[in-house]
Amino acid sequence: MGGHALLFDLKSDSMEQHDLSAAPEYADTFRRLWNLLLEHTRRYTPEALTEEGRFRTYDAPGFPGDMPGRWFGFHYHDYSVDTFH
User: Fold this and answer.
1) Is residue 63 domain-resident?
2) Closest Cα partner for 35 from 62, 53, 48?
């Protein structure tokens, strides 16, 4: 999975302060959601996956000008939904 996945309980942790992705009691939920994400990606944006079925990853830009016109994907309280980033 790349070690970059996070899981939050937005009802009890709306500010996303406590990552639950490694918590044993959330293992089934994490696995189910991860598989749904992979299934959705295979269907709608397969180019985001490698031949092995993993997400393509790139080094993070060091400065906003490194990737002109690209939104880095961050969480902000004015957005009602999360983003795939």
Assistant:
1) no
2) 53
DSSP state of 45: -
Residue 70 lies in a domain: no
pLDDT tens-digit readout, 25-72 = 999 999 999 999 999 999 999 998 999 998 888 776 666 555 555 555
CA–CA distance, 31 with 75 (Å, rounded to integer) = 23
Residue 84 lies in a domain: no
Cα within 13 Å of Cα(81), Cβ side = 3
Query: What's the pTM value of the predicted model, to 2 decimals?
Result: 0.63
User: Is 73 contained in some domain?
Assistant: no
